[in-house]
Amino acid sequence: MTLVQLEYLVAVDTHRHFATAAEHCFVTQPTLSMQLQKLEEELGVQLFDRSRVPVRPTEIGKEIIAQARVVLAESKKIQEIVQNQKQELSGELRIGVIPTLAPYLIPLFVTGFLEKHPHVQLVVQELLTDQIVEKLNHEQLDVGLLVTPLSNKSIKELPLFYEAFVTYINPAHPLAKQEAISPNQLDLDELWVLNEGHCFRSQVLNICNRAGTVSGQKGHLDYKSGSLETLKRIVETQHGLTLLPELSVLELPNEKRRLIRPFEEPQPLREVSLVVHRSFLKKKLIQALQQEIMASIPEEIRNRKKEQVIAVK
């Protein structure tokens, strides 16, 4: 049994396809298949049910694959020990970021991080929360930037800051005359929200204290969006209102800032965290990322305490 065989084993489990796994391991499919066959012969068990499409691990295969992931993670710690002795950080850091954070948070820190650590390659993917967690569990990402808590035992959460929600209101809407908004004034029939699958949608509905569905019917327009920027434009050009995270309105021009109304105290907010797998590696890189993000966040947000406001879960 070799580490290479275990890497091939984990790759097939991750991609559920021999050819795709071989491509990601930079070997030919016959080479990968031959090595896995040798591993099965050595162990005396069948690791995959090859009659199914996509290929699936057998019951004993699931247990062996889980242990293989542990062995590979431990072996990588040897490389990390060596890396930690070097003064200069280097290597690849794979980051997953949810869509309601990516366009507003990434530009704040990415330039400064790369200037301080020129030998680090950042690979950033915009993904939904469930996709980030799945990729962390399959070691396809090193760290995620998303909203917590997740209540997932396989994931470790490193809270960064607490971001307030604001309302974004069409000037013709009656609530636009108020200085601040109370959550109980929100009407779902007038509220533009993201598609299902976005955690931000669930948080918005929680602020409204309603678990019901949103029809999406706004007069003659039925629009399902996955973009906060699209929701802004709809509010500006049509009617109604939407809820936005604080970072998304920091750079708005003055003529659009007049559409923003804060919530009454205590403000609803969301907890933004770095998340990693429980057995995560690249600790120094992730620590450097954490420091750069915190340094880039406006002081008002950085210094906000969770106890001061109501957290949206």
UniProtKB/TrEMBL annotation:
Coiled-coil ranges per UniProt: none
Superkingdom, natural source: Bacteria
Keyword terms of this UniProt record: Activator, DNA-binding, Transcription, Transcription regulation
One Gene Ontology CC term in the entry: protein-DNA complex
Gene Ontology molecular function: DNA binding; DNA-binding transcription factor activity
Annotated SUPFAM superfamilies: Periplasmic binding protein-like II (SSF53850), Winged helix' DNA-binding domain (SSF46785)
Domain HTH lysR-type: 1-58
InterPro entries from the UniProt entry: LysR_HTH_N, LysR_subst-bd, WH-like_DNA-bd_sf, WH_DNA-bd_sf
UniProt record similarity statement: Belongs to the LysR transcriptional regulatory family.
Record-given protein name: LysR family transcriptional regulator, hydrogen peroxide-inducible genes activator
